[in-house]
């Protein structure tokens, strides 16, 4: 083969020649250029040749054309890069799909299904470890009348704003979700009824104080805590819902604690 070496490869070759001059064997791969301009990869195996006195008098070398192998390795490397990119894109798409499946499209909060799954897990964890667990259920007061008066787009703005207030006031450890329609719910792990009631009052006051350009907006709250006799999330939901009903019956814009 009529091959040429690039300057940097020629320097590397000279360095390896020095190694052989010191009596070291060497195996290396180097990229050359054929006289027709194509790239050629060769593998050189060089072993110092010694005479009877042990003196280095030459080098025994074999040169193999490994272009096909190196090109295959390059294609494999490129394929692995593409594969890794596709894997990352797939993971991102799956994460987005999972988020869509568990997120309320209007408010960005967790949806009803995600809430039920989380509540079931938290109830079982609290019962298993003897921990406190509370639930705050809330309903935007007179929301149907607001929608009928100002229109559904304005009602959507109210729901999104309420969701933002709930997210800002609730703790990072709490889970707030859209329960359905104008109802929202917050799960408070490791929180007793007093702590949950205090949070509900902060939420109520924050909603009432907020500037509502079209009409004042308030909300009613029902608070309940997990009991050792509860066996599932439906038990605590029923008590929070009962307390919420009492809050509405008592005039709305208030917090009522179960029991």
Describe it:
The protein is of the alpha+beta class and 259 residues long. It folds into two domains: 3-65, PAS domain (Beta-Lactamase), CATH 3.30.450.20; 112-257, Alpha-Beta Plaits. Helices cover 50% and strands 25% of the residues. The chain has seven helices and nine strands, in the order E-H-E-E-E-H-H-E-H-H-E-E-H-E-H-E. The chain has a five-stranded mixed beta sheet, with helices on both faces.
> pLDDT below 50 for ≥5 consecutive residues: which ranges?
none
| Class from helix and strand fractions | alpha+beta
CATH architecture type of the largest domain:
2-Layer Sandwich
CATH top level label of the largest domain = Alpha Beta
What's the total number of strands? 9
What is the straight-line distance between the termini? 94 Å
Count of alpha/pi helices: 7
Name the CATH homologous superfamily of the largest domain: Reverse transcriptase/Diguanylate cyclase domain
How would a textbook summarize the main sheet? 5 strands, mixed
What would the CATH topology of the largest domain be?
A: Alpha-Beta Plaits
As laid out across the biggest beta sheet, the strand order is: 6-7-5-8-9
Q: Rg, please?
A: 36 Å
Order of helices and strands: EHEEEHHEHHEEHEHE
Query: Overall pLDDT, averaged?
Result: 90
Number of domains: 2
Measured as a percent range, the helix fraction is: 40-55%
Q: What percent of residues are in strands? A: 25-35%
Tertiary shape: elongated
């Amino acid at each position: 083969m009529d091959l040429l070496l690039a300057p940097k490869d020629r320097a590397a070759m000279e360095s390896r020649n020095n190694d052989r001059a010191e009596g070291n064997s060497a195996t290396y791969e180097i990229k050359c250029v054929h006289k027709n301009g194509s790239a050629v990869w060769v593998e050189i195996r060089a072993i110092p040749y010694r005479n009877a006195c042990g003196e280095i008098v030459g080098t025994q070398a074999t040169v193999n054309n490994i272009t096909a192998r190196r090109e295959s390795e390059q294609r494999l490397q490129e394929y692995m890069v593409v594969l890794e990119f596709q894997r990352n894109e797939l993971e991102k798409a799956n994460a987005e799909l999972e988020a869509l499946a568990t997120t309320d499209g209007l408010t960005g909060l967790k949806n009803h299904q995600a809430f039920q799954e989380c509540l079931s897990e938290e109830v079982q964890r609290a019962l298993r470890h003897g921990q406190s667990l509370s639930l705050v259920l809330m309903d935007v007061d007179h929301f149907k009348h607001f929608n009928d008066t100002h229109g559904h787009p304005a009602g959507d703005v109210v729901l999104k704003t309420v969701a933002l207030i709930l997210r800002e006031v609730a703790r990072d450890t709490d889970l707030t979700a859209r329960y359905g329609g104008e109802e929202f719910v917050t799960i408070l792990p490791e929180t007793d009824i007093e702590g949950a009631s205090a949070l509900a009052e902060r939420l109520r006051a924050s909603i009432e104080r907020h500037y509502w350009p079209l009409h004042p907006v308030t909300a009613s709250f029902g608070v309940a805590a997990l009991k050792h006799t509860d066996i599932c999330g439906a038990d605590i939901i029923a008590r929070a819902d009962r307390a919420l009903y009492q809050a509405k019956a008592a005039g709305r814009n208030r917090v009522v604690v179960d029991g």
